[in-house]
Amino acid sequence: MARKDKKEEKLKMKMVRIYIMGKEYKVPEGLTIMKAMEYAGYRYIRGAGCRAGFCGACATVYRKEGEYKLNADLACQTTVEDGMYLVQLPFTPANKATYDVNKIKADDKTLVNFYPEIARCVSCNTCTKACPQELEVMDYIQSALRGDMKKTAELSFDCIQCGLCAMRCPAEIAHYHVAQLARRLYGKYLMPKAEHLEKRVNEIKRKRFDEEIGKMMKRNIEELRKMYNARDIEPEEEEEPKREGD
Amino acid sequence: MYPKEMQKSIKKVEATREERLKKLPERMNEKERDEVLKKWHPDYKPEAKRKIKIGASKGSIVPHEVADLIEAYPLFEPDEIDLSQIDYDTDILIIGGGGAGTTAALFAYYSGIKPEDILIATKLRHGDANTMMAQGGIQAADKENDSPVIHYLDVIGGGHYANKPELVAQLVMNAPEIIKWHEELGVMYDKKEDGEMITIHGGGTSRKRMHSAKDYTGMEIMRVIRDEARNVGIKVLEFSPAIELIKDDEDKVAGAVLYNLETEQYYVVRAKTTILATGGFGRLHIQGFPTTNHYGATFDGAVIAYRAGAKLRDMDSVQYHPTGVAYPEQIVGLLVTEKVRGLGGQPVNADGEQFVHPLEPRDVEAASFIRECYGRNKGVVTPTGMRGVWLDSPLIEMIHGEGTIEKRLGAMFRMFKRFDIDMRYEPILVFPTLHYQNGGVEINENAQVLSKNGVIKGLFAAGEVEGGVHGKNRLMGNSLLDTQVFGKIAGINAGKYAKKAKKSKKLNLKHVESYINELEKAKIKEERKAPLLLPDYREKNVLSRAIDIL
Question: CA torsion sign, A68 to A70 to A74 to A75?
Fold first, then answer.
């Protein structure tokens, strides 16, 4: 594509130095760490996943020349900077508790029973600083310790389970596993059930729609097209629920 | 931060915002839809496709990128593999560890197969899949004003009536039960205080039936079912894609050859039954489009199933998601969830004018964006020469109140904020991006894979790899649903099948040998090999000097 060539030309105008595990490469300014490593010649097996910030496969730590701070971020969502020393951490060794979600309770001791190490939290906040999602990790560990399932679930909801928190934690907590358990307990036991869902599932079990669906399956394209084009579309704004059969 | 030129256009968008809030453009009628599709949708370019020369769907028209992999030689010679030494012996082999594969494993377990007799083999990590990235939601007709019948009509009309009716029926009739299952597993769906599911419209829906978990819906579902699979003790082999199916003397599928990406050795898996759940093909970059898809979305499962006799269907149509990121450059092609439009974000051109209803079916919406940029020249041009249209996100907070974007579109907000764009106050620039494989390996209502001569024994498929559910165009929220519904059906039926089936005595790769013969007969040169396994994004100047010596 001509457009792409032009784009590359433009990018090549300014290069930055990055150090992949200490080894220097010159890459175009403006690339993400992930694309920069590919530019340098790396072909990922580990360390790349969704490439869009959802899967946590590309956890990366880096330090910039002359700075004391050790940064943690996702390679697919972070732009390279001149003098960046980086290494990927594509796997985190961390034990997950196993449980039968139907047999455990959402009480204030469950989390600490399954993950007693949360009691070792020294509130140093390193986990929070390491989180590429900018979650309040330490706060949710503290709520987990207090047995506040709702807060733990809500504060941790955007967690992509990259493991960077667990890698940095001096108390050796596997935060993201704790959070997973909290969310499941909250979702299962503490959030209110959807009654309309239960009702519909029962209707389907009682074969309420079987005949109508059967008819639909037999319709020819012309009939379906007519029906499709004549659909009434539920308006955007909230209104009184319609009667069945509408 | 937008460059100055783009900021000028933003001023125009701001100037019309109040007015636009009051009124949406009319939805198109059928004729208008057809017109814009034929002229502007990438699927309607005949030069981008060709007929397949060999195999069960010989003569079908597919994109060149697909045909290139179908008309390609295996990665190894069949006689290089020693099938007499079995590395893994299992009841059920599931190829693919995404939403469909994981759900299949759980339902096989629920139907009485022991966890140690189920093996998930996956190319990357367990959960590395497009499922994880699905943001917007999952459809299910579970409200009073809705029904599976209405859902059915939306699906089949959206799919241009090309869908297989029995598959659509399975999709819509199983949907509520899937959501219920999720609720019981602890998926945190967005709910009102009384427990009612918060549901919104998606493109092409006639009822608000899109369930979501913020804009991390797929991630939340995937995390929970993976956690459950781990609790149950399902075995998972990571970084071990299947590179060929194995058959037995009775022509049943009897397992697969896996390839350990890290040690480069192969494994022979013997299985009573095999479920294909390998996902789609976004990383083939059809027609050079950027993609929203996962790194591993390279069509592998369909390639190996085709060699085993599977038919393909609806592969002539490709889904381009209307709203891929067009700026900034670092994230071009990534998904901007349809939920942004579902919540009131409007597509607007460079002059701040509306030009299409925000919630037309995806193909129509995408074609309209392309027309606006290349037909009417009303797109916004970025510094790298990319064109796009605005998606006016600040409207969302005007409609639903301050804080809505952070609360309900947290992933989107975060993604743009990383590049100094605040979508609460500034619109975002979008252009269609390659999103979904509408078609795939043909299955029946029991998720069994079909050949020209009926069912291929011992082989099931679920999720994006299979075709027929969505016809020529999938609606938002039906892909997550597809992975879950057909994963469940495949898991249950594979479980039943495995209970009755005996272990295959003699394994063979005869189908691969015959396929090679067919390739040779069709005079296809041995220059291409498949499956692809991973895309290669290394720089040209590196590749040109790469030598394979270790």
Answer: positive
